[in-house]
Design brief:
mainly alpha; Tetracycline Repressor, domain 2; DNA-binding; 188 residues; 0% strand
């Protein structure tokens, strides 16, 4: 009986998540209602409220799930070695491919205004703890450099998604890492 309940809970959460992402593709979170979300998901509102307090809570849970996954990828490689850094970036890009619609939607600031900031904060913390303190003495420079690198990488990924992922994850990972490590000299 418990397994059946767990399957139902998983299904309900999955369909609500997919429905919210579908709605966010067309309009911002502020214009979405729980009634509309439940109608699309074919779920009763009372069922929705057993899982989430409102649609912002659902969006937050989706963002947390992605953040947890990204954090796991970031910490499974040694960022100091270029090949491992490329592998880590490639793994993240494969995850983006698996969840293309979700990333395409959540990286739209109008649809989900907090997602990009969450990604920035997660990556900035990782860089600070694993790289910046050893390589950049000035804290202020470190913050600016991490903002520059992270927002550049995020926007390259957004552009890649908009171009229908016209390069392989490996090609993009090499390109992003070379941009970060070599800047304009990479183009020579």
């Amino acid at each position: 009986m418990n397994e059946k309940l767990d399957r139902r809970k998983k299904y309900t959460r999955k369909v609500l998540k997919e429905s919210l992402i579908s709605l966010l593709a067309d309009k911002p979170i502020s214009d979405i209602t729980v009634k509309e979300l439940c109608g699309l998901a074919d779920i009763n509102r009372s069922t929705f409220y057993t899982h989430y307090s409102d649609h912002y809570d659902l969006l937050s849970k989706i963002e947390e799930e992605i953040t947890d996954d990204m954090n796991r990828y970031l910490h499974s490689y040694n960022y100091e070695h270029e090949e491992e850094s490329i592998q880590m970036t490639e793994k993240i890009l494969e995850y983006v491919i698996e969840n293309k619609l979700m990333f395409q939607t959540l990286l739209n600031k109008e649809a989900a205004p907090t997602f990009e900031k969450r990604m920035m904060d997660l990556t900035r913390g990782f860089m600070r703890n694993n790289w910046m303190d050893e390589h950049v003495a000035n804290k202020q420079e470190s913050e600016y450099l991490s903002s520059f690198v992270i927002s550049g990488a995020i926007h390259v990924i957004k552009d890649w998604i908009e171009r229908d992922m016209d390069q392989s994850p490996r090609e993009m990972a090499v390109m992003i890492n070379h941009f970060i490590n070599y800047g304009f000299s990479y183009l020579d």
